Amino acid sequence: MDRRFVIRETATVGPEIVRLVVEAPRVATHARAGQFVIVRANEHGERIPLTICEADPAAGTITLVVQAVGATTVQMNAKEVGDHLADVLGPLGTPTEIELFGTCLVVAGGVGTAIVLPVAHALSNAGNRVVAIVGARDADHLILLDEMGVACDDVIITTDDGSAGLHGFVTDALAMLISTSTVDYVFAAGPIPMMRAVAEATRGDKIVTVASLNPLMVDGTGMCGGCRVTVGGASQFACVDGPEFDAHQVDFAALATRNTAYLAFESCRLGEIGAEIDA
Fold first, then answer.
1. Residue 118: is the preceding peptide bond cis (ω within 30°)?
2. Fewer CB within 10 Å, N- or C-terminus of the chain?
3. Tens digits of per-residue pLDDT, 249-274?
4. pLDDT by residue (tens digit) across 111-138?
5. Which residue in 116, 151, 112, 146 sits closest to 130, CA to CA?
6. What range defines the domain where residue 116 resides?
7. How far apart are CA 201 and CA 206, in angstroms?
């Protein structure tokens, strides 16, 4: 039986950011908002977690958004239609808890938009009013805006350099909305400093705030312990207990430290992969 995960579509959606539509019928059938897959680009590659941005059970495909930041993601983004991934394991993780909260803000930074998008759809389908705040360093790094427009009642754009939308950070727009309207629920995904800032912005008003964490991960089943995070002073595993947690309880400083543990090794490996691709 051919179990290869064939790439059906590929498109560049931002600088070094590629959207892949991958044949994975079993994953597509069972995937829920907030879940992810563990992927290997080739038979000898490392395992990396990627959020299921979209699942289409009828077509038997899932959509992954990949930013080339390390050796494996560079290899993955170099693949073309008809190529395949060695492994796609999932869906993994605990699905997002979706309720009728009222007015929900989904806050995305950079490629975190791919994480936020399925959650926005699920919240909207549950009857909530959903407003998105999507931020990036500049206009070129804003992704999936059309898709967010379909999923949400309103989309607010921010850029660090002011090249699109509001000049500033997502937390500037978040503070404005909190001060001028009733906000019942906030969901955040993106860089660690951004998620930490969102948590601080909502803490005083005690707004329910959920963050999708991005720790280092190997097997996705809790066996390796690599994705250990500290939440409410206790250790939990992002792969099985999360990846979403109460943002007001997350130790973001510890998360940031763990995520930089292998930067030197990754930089070395990235240089090797670059040489292989150039050759």
1. no
2. N
3. 999 999 988 776 555 545 544 444 45
4. 999 999 999 999 999 999 999 999 999 9
5. 151
6. 103-212
7. 10
